[in-house]
Amino acid sequence: QVQLVESGGGLVQPGGSLRLSCAASESIFSINTMGWYRQAPGKQRELVAAITTGGSTNYADSVKGRFTISRDNAKNQVYLQMNSLKPEDTAVYYCNAHIVVVTPEIDEYDYWGQGTQVTVSS
């Protein structure tokens, strides 16, 4: 079981910056992929950014060039630096841990944090 706790959300003006943090209950080295998802009112949850154990990253097209995902293995934390924020970035942001095991059989698990609200408004 992996426990995830997000923090860092809040209210920010358009064009501003915010950094989200996700603290994991165990070494993120053992987690294949960690990422950030967001869900706005009336919309489905969508992937914002993800980072693998190898350091590969993926971003939603809407946030490329503005958001940066990073991790600190020593602190068991993952971060999402959000710059040039837009009103459409307003959503609840969730930390996700995706674990793939190959023994004794292939299986996948997803764990989620409780979410942190990000509101971009002037």
How is the topology of this model organized?
Blueprint: E1 4-7, E2 10-12, E3 18-24, E4 33-39, E5 46-52, E6 57-59, E7 67-72, E8 77-82, E9 91-101, E10 107-112, E11 116-120
Parallel strand pairs: 2-11
Antiparallel strand pairs: 1-3, 3-8, 4-5, 4-9, 5-6, 7-8, 9-10, 9-11
Write structural notes for this entry.
With 122 residues, the chain is mostly beta strands. 0% of the residues lie in helices and 53% in strands. The protein has no helices and 11 strands. Strands 2, 4, 5, 6, 9, 10 and 11 form a 7-stranded mixed β-sheet that branches. It has a 4-stranded antiparallel β-sheet with strand order 1-3-8-7, with no helix packed on it. A hairpin with a 4-residue loop joins strand 7 and strand 8. The protein is elongated, with a radius of gyration of 14 Å. The relative contact order is 0.31.
Q: What is the 3D form?
A: elongated
Quaternary organisation of the protein chains? single chain
How many strand segments?
11
Number of alpha- plus pi-helical segments:
0
Strand percent estimate = over 45%
Q: What's the order of the H and E elements?
A: EEEEEEEEEEE
Low-confidence runs of at least 5 consecutive residues: none
Name the average pLDDT. Answer: 94
Secondary-structure content class: mainly beta
Percent of residues in helices = under 10%
For the biggest sheet, the summary is: 7 strands, mixed
How big is the Rg?
14 Å
First-to-last CA distance: 40 Å
